[in-house]
């Protein structure tokens, strides 16, 4: 299924609908630029906003959401807001407390999606129980994970009552995550890409530039389109209005099967972020 417009959603394994595309705010510091980026995204039709406790910017995101909702004359229910519990807060009670802190900073009554940010060994199962509690109590619409490999997911699901709806991972043409993608599809877990543009490192790639020129599009647009046509959700980050608009101007072209395969062929299993099997934070 490929999204037909920016508000298009997919139905997660618990029946909740989530937009295919959203705004990421990793490394965007608190301040007017952040508030403005969130507000601008909402104005231009984005309905999914992704943040995390460790980004240290939930207050600004919350402010941008409040102002954006007002200016766009839409209700909170029209937005899909995601945040994530940080490693030092993983644990049953500490995760419950971290959720309340995130809500308070964002100025919201609930989150649409709450994720475990990293699979810290010996800690993520207790945190998952906390997420299940929040979900059962109706405090959050959906729960999932981030940066989990296949073996982490298998381990989690051995004891879990509720299956994650999402796994948000680093995914881009240099890291296509084929094995994880196949596992996710088999288990009805939606894959979502962070760093889809490889933190800008792919924007000068000649192969991608050639494909982009053919469609009269930017490299960023081609990559995000590739995600969508592969059934992967994504959250490109930008603070500049023209980029916020450009990143999602993707619904008037389609990549051919051959082009999709050429992009897949760029894979080098190369990460710009930490390795989920080998991190120390």
CATH class: Alpha Beta
- Report how far the terminal alpha carbons are from each other: 37 Å
**Would you tell me the structural class of the helices and strands?**
alpha/beta
- Named CATH architecture: Alpha-Beta Barrel
The total strand number stands at 10
String of helices and strands:
EEEHEHEHEHEHEHEHHEHH
Main β-sheet, spatial strand arrangement: 3-4-5-6-7-8-9-10
Number of domains: 1
User: At the third CATH level, what is the topology name?
Assistant: TIM Barrel
Strand content: 5-15%
Helix content: 25-40%
Could you characterize what this model shows?
It contains ten helices and ten strands. It is globular and about 55 Å long. β7, α5 and β8 (166-170) form a beta-alpha-beta unit. The protein is an alpha/beta fold. Helices cover 39% and strands 15% of the residues. The strands form two sheets. The protein has an eight-stranded parallel β-sheet with strand order 3-4-5-6-7-8-9-10. It has a single domain (9-264), classed as TIM Barrel.
């Amino acid at each position: 299924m490929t999204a037909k417009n920016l508000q298009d959603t997919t139905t997660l394994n618990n029946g909740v609908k989530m937009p295919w595309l959203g705004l990421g705010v990793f490394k965007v510091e608190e301040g007017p630029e952040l508030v403005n980026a969130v507000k601008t995204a909402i104005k231009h039709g984005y309905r999914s906003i992704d943040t995390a406790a460790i980004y240290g910017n939930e207050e600004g995101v919350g402010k941008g959401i409040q102002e954006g909702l007002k200016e766009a004359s839409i209700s909170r229910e029209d937005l899909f807001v995601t945040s994530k519990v940080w490693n030092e807060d993983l644990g049953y009670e500490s995760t419950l407390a971290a959720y309340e802190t995130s809500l308070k900073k964002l100025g919201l009554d609930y989150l649409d999606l709450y994720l475990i940010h990293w699979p810290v060994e010996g800690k993520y199962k207790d945190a998952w129980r906390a997420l299940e509690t929040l979900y059962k109590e109706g405090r959050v619409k959906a729960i999932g994970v981030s940066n989990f490999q296949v073996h982490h997911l298998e381990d989690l699901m051995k004891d879990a009552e509720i299956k994650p709806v999402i796994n948000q991972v680093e995914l881009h043409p240099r890291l296509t995550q084929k094995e994880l993608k196949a596992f996710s599809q088999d288990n009805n877990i939606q894959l979502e890409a962070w760093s889809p543009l490889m933190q800008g490192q792919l924007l000068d790639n000649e192969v991608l530039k050639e494909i982009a020129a053919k469609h009269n599009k930017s490299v960023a647009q081609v990559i995000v389109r590739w995600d969508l046509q592969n059934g992967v959700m994504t959250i490109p980050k930008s603070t500049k209005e023209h980029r916020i608009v450009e990143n999602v101007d993707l619904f008037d072209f389609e990549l051919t099967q051959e082009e999709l395969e050429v992009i897949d062929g760029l894979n080098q299993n190369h990460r710009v972020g930490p390795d989920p099997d080998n991190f120390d934070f």
